[in-house]
Amino acid sequence: MTIRHTSHPRTRTAGLRRAVAKPWRLACALGLAWATLAAGSPARASVEAAVLHAAVEPGATPDAGAGSLAEVLPPSRDSAPDSIVAVRATTVPPVHAEPSRLRPPHPPPPPRLGDISAWIEFKTRAHLLALPQEARIFYRRGLMLQLSGDRTEALRLVRGAAVLDPGFVAPHLRLAAWLAFSDPVAALEHGDAVFRLARHSFLIQLVLAANALYLMVQALYLALFVAGLVVIALNQQRLRHGWIERLVPFVSSGTARWWSWAILIAPFLAGLGPSLPCVVFLGMLWPTTRRRERGIFILLAVALAAGPLVTTALDHFSAPLDGERGPFYDVLQLQTEPYSPEWRAEIERHLAAHPDNPFLRFGAAWMAQRAGDPAAAERHYRRVLTMWPNDDRVLNNLGNTLASVGRSNEALEFYGKAAEANPKNAAARFNASQIYTLNFDFPAATIELERASALDFELVETYQAERIEPRWAVLVDQWIAPRTFWRALLHAPYGGATLHSPYGGATLGALPPWWRARIECTGRAYGLVALLLAAAALVLGMAFQRELPIRGCVNCGRAMCRRCASRRRALTLCHACAAVESRAESTDFGRVLLTQQRRRIVRRRERYMRLFAILLPGTGYLAHRRLRRSVLLFAVGAALLSATFGIATPFTFEPRLGDVGHDVPLAGFTLAWLLFYAVNTLVYLAFEEYERARVASLPARNQRFAAAPRRDQAVA
């Protein structure tokens, strides 16, 4: 089997130099790529290594040295299930060779998985570029040791896992998180490695995109919902006052007040979801709220109605992770899975049903090449070229297949076509230099090697190190480019699995687990009901306002209607303010008393709002009609809360073997929350001072209306 490899070993100094030179890479890696770690996702970059060895002796036949897999490496033993034998390699014979003579076999692997140093030494002595299965086992053990408190041994195992499989992204992310405070230099280096891996791996990009879409939609929805609740709380007396006035003819005023609270709270407990009552109450408040508050009602209603579209988009992004759905089927898993006859049979099964699928055809060629079946690999690669005529990676892999059976001239022709299709393809240049070296054409080999080094020095440095003897050739296979996957995904038809909701009916799309139990995600029916109820609430609110207008006291802003309003000297006041004004013997003294009353109420409201604004960032801005700031802060808080409780990254393309704790250390979450609250507190206090100065600069008459807004306050 061919070794698949994506990242290349490099010195610590070189990695740090690149990390410092381009800090934006680190920001992207540490800010977004942690979601891949939370999804438990490994990564492979676009360049996949095929270490192809050949016994290069004059006079050998083209088939010399192409021994079977059992001759190359000892098979795995059933009696030792914890011992995983390394992946094998095929052979590349030279053009002129002696009669067949097998090269010496690889050293046997360690019998047990207890010592990671022994496996690293075996990987080095066997000239293997990756041991993916062993790397994941040691990585898992490192996570468990970290939870048990043995940090030193956990670091050793996780670092060893990164060495065993340099294309495994999870150890780099974990080490970047663990070492962020104790060893920032190493953390920056691992962050740079994550960014480089993500650039060339469609699986990492897919998981990041799906999780980012999920987190963005969830945070935005929660932000709109919380903003709607805050608006209802700020205006609850305007809403309840109309109900009280309509209940008073039937019950006492005290009982009517209790019934108004019951009407306000009961819908949230009725099992209809919290969003639907929120939309209904916002619609009923439409006539008495300001324009920006009405925007929350519109956005939340649209969000509920657009739920099926969101689930369809999430399903479309998750489709490549389902091995039974096109156009990718199980092909994506081949990039990270070792060869097995079962995997090849599965791909052949899908290919028989979809013979014109280029991804399945490429996967069949990939598996055939690793199974030591170059004839089948050549046939499949040539068929792929009829569907992707100028794909440089297919051309390069076809050249490797031809080189493995001694057809070096044809291989060089395809390497040239690959370099012509993509002049930045360093792998094709490097492979051509290897074939020229086997043919003893050293000037041409030097030219191709120089070109490959100019394009990707790390690739050349890594695989040249594997060529420790002149009679060994190292060729580089390439996986499908991420842009090819994205192009196919964007043009693939929408539609997917049907999930049954616990509320009855069907839910379209592969929803994340946390969403499946929500009634808001039951499909188009709920969105349609939400729109109808929102329209009905809007009409009902306008009718109630026309029948019994609700206004605010001109002094304190308390909700009142014409039945309970008191007119004092051309002022419409509530009962409390009218009682204060009635104690004055003159108009001027009445204004003084009303001003004092207003200031007491405003100071009390400001204290409560300051407390709520600090405890729930974004609340204070809604009292000043700053909708965008509130929604932004609510969304950031919702995203942090989702990450803290582990529901921010539901998508993964590698099985999770249980929960081993947070993917980001507790210190990281603590620092993020402290920073969030500190910035919010400082910014809000500065904003409050600005608003106070703005109100003070207004004329006296306008100050009264600015200090006592039309909205009702929850504490009034």
Q: Could you explain how this protein is built, in words?
A:
The structure is a single chain. This protein is mainly alpha-helical and 716 residues long. The strands form 4 sheets. A two-stranded antiparallel ribbon has the order 1-2. Strands 3-4 form a two-stranded antiparallel sheet. Strands 5-6 form a two-stranded antiparallel sheet. Helix 11 packs across helix 12, helix 23 (442-455) crosses helix 24 (457-466) and helix 31 (627-644) runs antiparallel to helix 32. The longest helix is centred in the first third of the chain and has 33 residues, at 202-234.
Q: Beta fraction of the residues?
A: under 5%
- Structural class given helices, strands, pairing? mainly alpha
Number of strands: 8
Read across the widest sheet, the strand sequence of neighbours is 1-2
Number of helices: 33
Question: What's the short story on this structure?
Answer:
This protein has about 725 residues and is mainly alpha-helical. It has 33 helices and eight strands.
Question: Which key phrases capture this entry?
Answer:
elongated, mainly alpha, disordered N terminus, 33 helices
How do the strands and helices of this protein lay out in sequence?
Blueprint: H1 12-21, H2 23-32, H3 34-38, E1 47-50, H4 69-72, H5 116-125, H6 132-148, H7 151-164, H8 169-178, H9 184-200, H10 202-234, H11 236-247, H12 253-265, H13 275-284, H14 291-305, H15 307-318, H16 331-334, H17 341-353, H18 358-370, H19 374-387, H20 392-404, H21 408-421, H22 426-438, H23 442-455, H24 457-466, E2 475-478, H25 482-491, E3 498-500, E4 506-508, H26 513-516, H27 524-547, E5 551-552, E6 559-560, E7 566-568, E8 571-573, H28 575-582, H29 587-615, H30 619-622, H31 627-644, H32 666-696, H33 700-707
Antiparallel strand pairs: 1-2, 3-4, 5-6, 7-8
Helix pairs in contact: 1-9, 2-9, 5-7, 6-7, 7-8, 8-9, 9-10, 10-13, 10-14, 10-15, 10-31, 11-12, 13-14, 13-27, 14-27, 17-18, 18-19, 19-20, 20-21, 20-22, 21-22, 22-23, 23-24, 28-29, 29-32, 31-32
